Amino acid sequence: MEGSVVLVTGAGSGIGRAAAGLFAERGAAVVAADRSESGAGTVAAITAAGGRAFFVQADVSVEKEVENMVAAAVDTYGALDAAFNNAGIAPPVAPIERLSSESWELSEAVNLRGVWLCMKHELAVMARQGHGSIVNTSSVAGLVGNPGGGAAYSAFKHGVVGLTRSAAAEHGRHGIRVNAIAPGLTRTGMLRHLEQHEHLDAEGAAAATPLGRVAQPREVAEAAYWLASPRSSFVTGHVLAVDGGETC
Ligand code: NAI
């Protein structure tokens, strides 16, 4: 990825922060986007280590902010070679019959519409360039059902898979690859939030999977890196489970 320009959303924390660091370590110029100021911390860490990055504050569910984010990447670095559409939220857990419309809409806005809006503006740039690689973050909950209150999250993460495959089919002829990762339980701020507020026993759940543990963010970021990079040059429309065997 030496010399490439890579946009990462949700870059302020967890998987996005690890991925932004990894891309920068391997020579990419990174556009670290997040709706919170935490993205500035990611950029500070990258530049302190000698990498190139800048922070864009953007909410992926707001089209104008997404448009500005993509424009800032192109204006600053002159191109957009790869994008990791990773920002996501875990809405309050509730069984379907008690799920509120507000919670459904909030989850949809970030977890599905946010990915669509990012792709919409990234693909326009990449089609003009004649090349590009997009990686979206789905989840194991986008491959199988998510009983116990996570139906809305699961529905939108399945939606990310549909968007990914459709975009791959539409844009292969333009030299653009589109893939997704489907992480299992990963030790991030989101997981801590679910443990503290939704009584998730992450370690207990992970113990029942083949590898028997949760992932570290960098292990998931490595999969995103591979899919974004030319090392996966003949892979498109693929959803890579990075889940310690949870769905095997
Ligand atoms: P995290 O909570 O540590 O980081 C998510 C980042 O996204 C935060 O910095 C947050 O400010 C940002 N963000 C949230 N909403 C945003 C918005 N509307 N616009 C821009 N930025 C926004 O979470 P984590 O775990 O790193 O999650 C990254 C992705 O991985 C998410 O899509 C999540 O659904 C997915 N995932 C996480 C798993 C886990 O166990 N941690 C498992 C499967 C998928």
Describe this structure in words.
Belongs to the short-chain dehydrogenases/reductases (SDR) family. InterPro entries: NAD(P)-bd_dom_sf (IPR036291), SDR_fam (IPR002347). GO terms for molecular function: oxidoreductase activity. It comes from Streptomyces phyllanthi. Helix 5 links the parallel strand 5 and strand 6. The chain has helices at residues 14-25, 38-48, 63-77, 101-129, 151-171, 189-197, 202-207, 217-228, and strands at residues 5-9, 29-34, 52-57, 82-85, 132-137, 176-183, 239-242. It has a seven-stranded parallel β-sheet with strand order 3-2-1-4-5-6-7, with helices on both faces. The model has no long low-confidence stretch (mean pLDDT 97). Helix content is 46%, strand content 16%. It contains eight helices and seven strands; from the N terminus they run E-H-E-H-E-H-E-H-E-H-E-H-H-H-E. The protein has 248 residues and is α/β, with parallel strands linked by helices. Helix 1 runs parallel beside helix 2 and helix 4 packs parallel to helix 5. Bound molecules: 1,4-dihydronicotinamide adenine dinucleotide. The site of 1,4-dihydronicotinamide adenine dinucleotide has 29 residues, from helix 1, helix 4 and helix 6.
Architecture blueprint of SSEs:
Layout: E1 5-9, H1 14-25, E2 29-34, H2 38-48, E3 52-57, H3 63-77, E4 82-85, H4 101-129, E5 132-137, H5 151-171, E6 176-183, H6 189-197, H7 202-207, H8 217-228, E7 239-242
The structure holds 1,4-dihydronicotinamide adenine dinucleotide (NAI).
